[in-house]
Amino acid sequence: MAQNPPDLRPDRANARLERDLGTVRPGRQPTIGMVSLGCPKALVDSERILTRLRAEGYAISPEYGGADAVIVNTCGFLDSAKAESLDAIGEALNANGRVIVTGCLGAEPEYITGAHPKVLAVTGPHQYEQVLDAVHGAVPPDPDPFVDLMPAAGVKLTPRHYSYLKISEGCNHKCRFCVIPDMRGRLSSRPMAAVMREAEKLVESGVKEILVISQDTSAYGTDWADRPSKFPILDLARELGQLGVWVRMHYVYPYKHVRDLVPVMADGGVLPYLDIPFQHAHPDTLKRMARPAAAERTLEEIAAWRRTCPDITLRSTFIVGYPGETEAEFQTLLDWLDEAQLDRVGCFQYENVAGARSNALPDHVPEEVKAERWARFMEKAQAISEAKLAAKVGRRVNAIVDDVDDDGATCRTTADAPEIDGNLFVDRGFEGLTPGDIIEVEVDEASDYDLWGARL
Question: What is the pLDDT of residues 384-408, one digit of tens each?
Answer without folding.
Answer: 999 999 999 999 999 999 999 999 9
